[in-house]
Amino acid sequence: MVPYLQIDGLTKSFGDLVLFNQISFGVAEGQRIGLIAKNGSGKTTLLNIIAGKEGYDEGSIVFRRDLCVGYLEQDPHYPEELTVLEACFHHGNTTVQLIKEYERCMETEGNPGMEDLLARMEHEKAWDYERKAKQILSQLKIRDFNQQVKHLSGGQLKRVALANVLITEPDFLILDEPTNHLDLDMTEWLEDYLRRGNISLLMVTHDRYFLERVCSEIIEIDNKQVYSYKGNYSYYLEKRQERIEATNAEIARANNLYRTELEWMRRMPQARGH
Fold first, then answer.
1. Are the beta carbons of 144 and 84 closer than 8 angstroms?
2. Smallest Cα–Cα separation from 178: which of 167, 191, 192?
3. Contact at 8 Å (CB) between 240 and 232?
4. Can you tell me whether residue 254 is helix, strand or coil?
5. Quick one: CATH architecture of 30-54+171-274?
6. I need a labelling partner for 116 at 20 to 30 A (CA). Which of 41, 165, 256, 257 fits?
7. In this structure, are residues 203 and 34 in contact, taking their beta carbons and an 8 Å threshold?
8. Which run of H or of E encompasses 133?
9. pLDDT digits (tens, 9 = 90+) for 132-142
Protein backbone atom coordinates (compact mmCIF):
# COMPACT_ATOMS: atom_id res chain seq x y z
CA MET A 1 0.00 0.00 0.00
CA VAL A 2 1.11 3.55 -0.76
CA PRO A 3 1.81 5.49 2.48
CA TYR A 4 -0.26 8.67 2.80
CA LEU A 5 0.53 9.80 6.34
CA GLN A 6 3.20 8.89 8.88
CA ILE A 7 3.19 10.14 12.48
CA ASP A 8 6.21 9.45 14.69
CA GLY A 9 6.81 10.27 18.35
CA LEU A 10 3.94 12.76 18.59
CA THR A 11 3.44 14.35 22.01
CA LYS A 12 0.79 16.90 23.00
CA SER A 13 0.08 18.42 26.39
CA PHE A 14 -1.81 21.33 27.90
CA GLY A 15 0.20 22.40 30.92
CA ASP A 16 0.46 19.35 33.18
CA LEU A 17 -2.21 17.46 31.24
CA VAL A 18 -0.58 15.07 28.75
CA LEU A 19 -3.04 13.95 26.06
CA PHE A 20 -0.70 11.57 24.23
CA ASN A 21 2.95 10.78 24.61
CA GLN A 22 5.32 9.63 21.84
CA ILE A 23 2.55 8.07 19.74
CA SER A 24 3.28 6.72 16.26
CA PHE A 25 1.04 5.36 13.49
CA GLY A 26 0.48 5.63 9.76
CA VAL A 27 -2.31 5.71 7.18
CA ALA A 28 -1.91 4.17 3.73
CA GLU A 29 -3.92 4.28 0.53
CA GLY A 30 -7.27 2.52 0.90
CA GLN A 31 -7.22 2.31 4.69
CA ARG A 32 -10.40 3.38 6.51
CA ILE A 33 -9.43 3.93 10.12
CA GLY A 34 -11.64 4.78 13.09
CA LEU A 35 -10.01 6.70 15.96
CA ILE A 36 -11.33 5.78 19.40
CA ALA A 37 -10.62 7.19 22.86
CA LYS A 38 -12.45 8.21 26.01
CA ASN A 39 -14.00 11.68 26.01
CA GLY A 40 -11.37 14.29 26.78
CA SER A 41 -8.49 12.07 25.62
CA GLY A 42 -7.60 14.28 22.66
CA LYS A 43 -9.32 12.80 19.60
CA THR A 44 -10.36 16.13 18.11
CA THR A 45 -7.05 17.69 19.16
CA LEU A 46 -5.19 14.95 17.28
CA LEU A 47 -7.27 15.52 14.12
CA ASN A 48 -6.65 19.28 14.37
CA ILE A 49 -2.91 18.65 14.72
CA ILE A 50 -2.86 16.36 11.68
CA ALA A 51 -4.84 18.93 9.68
CA GLY A 52 -2.32 21.63 10.61
CA LYS A 53 -4.78 23.66 12.69
CA GLU A 54 -3.10 23.10 16.04
CA GLY A 55 0.47 22.78 17.26
CA TYR A 56 2.17 19.97 19.17
CA ASP A 57 5.08 19.57 21.58
CA GLU A 58 7.30 17.15 19.68
CA GLY A 59 7.30 14.51 16.97
CA SER A 60 6.82 14.53 13.21
CA ILE A 61 3.85 14.45 10.82
CA VAL A 62 4.66 13.65 7.20
CA PHE A 63 2.18 13.49 4.31
CA ARG A 64 2.92 12.03 0.90
CA ARG A 65 3.95 14.80 -1.44
CA ASP A 66 1.07 16.42 -3.38
CA LEU A 67 -1.53 14.55 -1.32
CA CYS A 68 -4.95 16.23 -1.38
CA VAL A 69 -6.44 16.17 2.14
CA GLY A 70 -10.03 17.02 3.10
CA TYR A 71 -10.89 17.84 6.71
CA LEU A 72 -14.37 17.96 8.23
CA GLU A 73 -14.10 19.87 11.49
CA GLN A 74 -16.42 19.20 14.41
CA ASP A 75 -17.61 22.83 14.37
CA PRO A 76 -17.01 24.31 10.89
CA HIS A 77 -17.11 28.05 10.19
CA TYR A 78 -17.63 30.02 6.96
CA PRO A 79 -17.80 33.74 6.12
CA GLU A 80 -21.39 34.77 6.81
CA GLU A 81 -21.97 36.41 3.44
CA LEU A 82 -21.41 33.18 1.45
CA THR A 83 -24.32 31.27 -0.03
CA VAL A 84 -24.63 27.53 0.49
CA LEU A 85 -23.24 26.84 -2.99
CA GLU A 86 -20.38 29.30 -2.51
CA ALA A 87 -19.52 27.65 0.80
CA CYS A 88 -19.20 24.33 -1.02
CA PHE A 89 -16.50 25.90 -3.16
CA HIS A 90 -14.84 27.79 -0.30
CA HIS A 91 -12.11 25.22 0.43
CA GLY A 92 -11.50 23.57 -2.88
CA ASN A 93 -9.17 21.93 -5.35
CA THR A 94 -7.85 23.13 -8.71
CA THR A 95 -11.26 22.62 -10.33
CA VAL A 96 -12.89 24.88 -7.75
CA GLN A 97 -10.25 27.54 -8.37
CA LEU A 98 -10.90 27.26 -12.10
CA ILE A 99 -14.65 27.75 -11.57
CA LYS A 100 -13.96 30.86 -9.48
CA GLU A 101 -11.66 32.15 -12.23
CA TYR A 102 -14.39 31.56 -14.80
CA GLU A 103 -16.96 33.40 -12.65
CA ARG A 104 -14.62 36.39 -12.25
CA CYS A 105 -14.10 36.45 -16.01
CA MET A 106 -17.88 36.46 -16.57
CA GLU A 107 -18.19 39.47 -14.26
CA THR A 108 -15.38 41.39 -16.02
CA GLU A 109 -16.23 43.64 -18.96
CA GLY A 110 -15.18 42.08 -22.24
CA ASN A 111 -14.61 38.65 -20.61
CA PRO A 112 -10.82 38.66 -21.14
CA GLY A 113 -9.29 35.20 -21.53
CA MET A 114 -12.68 33.52 -21.87
CA GLU A 115 -11.66 31.25 -24.75
CA ASP A 116 -8.75 29.78 -22.80
CA LEU A 117 -10.93 29.39 -19.69
CA LEU A 118 -13.63 27.55 -21.63
CA ALA A 119 -11.05 25.09 -22.96
CA ARG A 120 -9.69 24.51 -19.45
CA MET A 121 -13.20 24.11 -18.03
CA GLU A 122 -13.91 21.47 -20.66
CA HIS A 123 -10.63 19.66 -19.97
CA GLU A 124 -11.21 19.63 -16.18
CA LYS A 125 -14.87 18.62 -16.62
CA ALA A 126 -15.69 21.58 -14.42
CA TRP A 127 -19.18 21.87 -15.91
CA ASP A 128 -20.13 18.75 -13.97
CA TYR A 129 -18.79 20.12 -10.72
CA GLU A 130 -21.70 22.38 -9.79
CA ARG A 131 -24.17 19.64 -10.71
CA LYS A 132 -22.31 17.22 -8.44
CA ALA A 133 -22.28 19.78 -5.61
CA LYS A 134 -26.05 20.18 -5.86
CA GLN A 135 -26.54 16.40 -5.93
CA ILE A 136 -24.53 15.89 -2.73
CA LEU A 137 -26.23 18.83 -1.00
CA SER A 138 -29.61 17.38 -1.96
CA GLN A 139 -28.64 13.98 -0.54
CA LEU A 140 -27.87 15.82 2.70
CA LYS A 141 -31.28 17.57 2.48
CA ILE A 142 -29.87 21.04 1.78
CA ARG A 143 -31.90 22.34 -1.18
CA ASP A 144 -31.82 26.13 -0.97
CA PHE A 145 -28.45 26.66 -2.64
CA ASN A 146 -28.71 30.46 -2.57
CA GLN A 147 -29.41 30.73 1.16
CA GLN A 148 -26.69 32.57 3.08
CA VAL A 149 -24.82 30.41 5.56
CA LYS A 150 -25.46 32.92 8.36
CA HIS A 151 -29.12 31.80 8.29
CA LEU A 152 -28.28 28.08 8.63
CA SER A 153 -28.59 26.11 11.84
CA GLY A 154 -25.48 24.45 13.28
CA GLY A 155 -26.64 21.10 11.91
CA GLN A 156 -27.24 22.49 8.42
CA LEU A 157 -23.82 24.16 8.43
CA LYS A 158 -22.16 20.87 9.38
CA ARG A 159 -23.88 19.20 6.43
CA VAL A 160 -22.72 21.94 4.06
CA ALA A 161 -19.17 21.45 5.36
CA LEU A 162 -19.49 17.70 4.79
CA ALA A 163 -20.64 18.34 1.21
CA ASN A 164 -17.70 20.72 0.74
CA VAL A 165 -15.24 18.00 1.79
CA LEU A 166 -16.82 15.26 -0.34
CA ILE A 167 -17.18 17.39 -3.48
CA THR A 168 -13.45 18.09 -3.64
CA GLU A 169 -12.77 14.30 -3.81
CA PRO A 170 -9.56 14.40 -1.72
CA ASP A 171 -7.09 11.52 -1.63
CA PHE A 172 -7.39 11.37 2.16
CA LEU A 173 -10.41 12.28 4.30
CA ILE A 174 -10.19 13.35 7.95
CA LEU A 175 -13.68 13.36 9.48
CA ASP A 176 -14.66 14.56 12.95
CA GLU A 177 -18.14 13.30 13.88
CA PRO A 178 -19.47 13.14 10.28
CA THR A 179 -22.86 11.68 11.27
CA ASN A 180 -23.72 14.47 13.71
CA HIS A 181 -26.97 16.13 12.54
CA LEU A 182 -27.65 13.40 9.93
CA ASP A 183 -30.89 11.43 9.94
CA LEU A 184 -30.99 7.71 9.10
CA ASP A 185 -31.36 8.24 5.33
CA MET A 186 -28.42 10.65 5.19
CA THR A 187 -26.28 8.39 7.40
CA GLU A 188 -26.92 5.37 5.18
CA TRP A 189 -26.14 7.42 2.07
CA LEU A 190 -22.84 8.60 3.60
CA GLU A 191 -22.00 5.07 4.68
CA ASP A 192 -22.43 3.81 1.10
CA TYR A 193 -20.46 6.77 -0.27
CA LEU A 194 -17.47 6.14 2.00
CA ARG A 195 -17.44 2.40 1.32
CA ARG A 196 -17.27 2.89 -2.44
CA GLY A 197 -13.98 2.81 -4.29
CA ASN A 198 -10.62 3.15 -2.63
CA ILE A 199 -11.34 6.00 -0.21
CA SER A 200 -8.75 6.54 2.54
CA LEU A 201 -9.95 8.08 5.78
CA LEU A 202 -9.25 8.73 9.44
CA MET A 203 -12.47 9.27 11.38
CA VAL A 204 -13.77 10.07 14.84
CA THR A 205 -17.41 9.18 15.52
CA HIS A 206 -19.61 8.18 18.46
CA ASP A 207 -21.88 6.28 16.04
CA ARG A 208 -20.66 2.74 16.73
CA TYR A 209 -22.84 1.16 14.04
CA PHE A 210 -21.48 3.59 11.43
CA LEU A 211 -17.96 2.84 12.66
CA GLU A 212 -18.61 -0.90 12.34
CA ARG A 213 -19.90 -0.56 8.79
CA VAL A 214 -17.37 1.92 7.38
CA CYS A 215 -14.00 1.36 9.07
CA SER A 216 -11.80 -1.68 8.49
CA GLU A 217 -9.22 -0.74 11.14
CA ILE A 218 -9.32 0.86 14.59
CA ILE A 219 -6.75 3.01 16.37
CA GLU A 220 -7.30 3.52 20.10
CA ILE A 221 -5.72 6.15 22.32
CA ASP A 222 -5.63 4.73 25.85
CA ASN A 223 -3.53 5.98 28.75
CA LYS A 224 -1.65 8.38 26.41
CA GLN A 225 -0.57 5.51 24.12
CA VAL A 226 -1.80 4.18 20.77
CA TYR A 227 -3.04 0.64 20.06
CA SER A 228 -3.86 -0.58 16.53
CA TYR A 229 -6.44 -3.25 15.62
CA LYS A 230 -6.58 -4.65 12.09
CA GLY A 231 -10.32 -5.19 11.97
CA ASN A 232 -13.68 -3.46 12.38
CA TYR A 233 -15.32 -2.25 15.59
CA SER A 234 -16.50 -5.73 16.68
CA TYR A 235 -12.98 -7.08 16.22
CA TYR A 236 -11.63 -4.14 18.22
CA LEU A 237 -13.99 -4.84 21.14
CA GLU A 238 -12.91 -8.48 21.23
CA LYS A 239 -9.17 -7.80 20.98
CA ARG A 240 -9.30 -4.87 23.40
CA GLN A 241 -10.84 -7.13 26.03
CA GLU A 242 -8.09 -9.67 25.42
CA ARG A 243 -5.47 -6.92 25.82
CA ILE A 244 -7.03 -5.72 29.09
CA GLU A 245 -7.24 -9.27 30.45
CA ALA A 246 -3.61 -9.94 29.51
CA THR A 247 -2.56 -6.67 31.19
CA ASN A 248 -4.56 -7.51 34.32
CA ALA A 249 -3.03 -11.01 34.42
CA GLU A 250 0.45 -9.47 34.17
CA ILE A 251 -0.38 -7.08 37.02
CA ALA A 252 -1.73 -9.98 39.10
CA ARG A 253 1.45 -12.00 38.48
CA ALA A 254 3.58 -9.01 39.50
CA ASN A 255 1.50 -8.53 42.66
CA ASN A 256 1.80 -12.22 43.54
CA LEU A 257 5.56 -12.04 43.07
CA TYR A 258 5.66 -8.93 45.27
CA ARG A 259 3.63 -10.66 48.00
CA THR A 260 5.83 -13.76 47.83
CA GLU A 261 9.02 -11.72 48.12
CA LEU A 262 7.54 -9.63 50.93
CA GLU A 263 6.62 -12.77 52.86
CA TRP A 264 10.10 -14.17 52.25
CA MET A 265 11.70 -10.95 53.48
CA ARG A 266 9.55 -10.99 56.62
CA ARG A 267 10.65 -14.56 57.40
CA MET A 268 14.35 -13.91 56.76
CA PRO A 269 15.30 -12.76 60.31
CA GLN A 270 13.45 -15.71 61.83
CA ALA A 271 15.18 -18.14 59.51
CA ARG A 272 18.59 -16.71 60.41
CA GLY A 273 17.75 -16.84 64.09
CA HIS A 274 17.24 -20.61 64.12
1. yes
2. 191
3. no
4. helix
5. 3-Layer(aba) Sandwich (3.40)
6. 165
7. yes
8. helix 127-139
9. 888 999 999 99
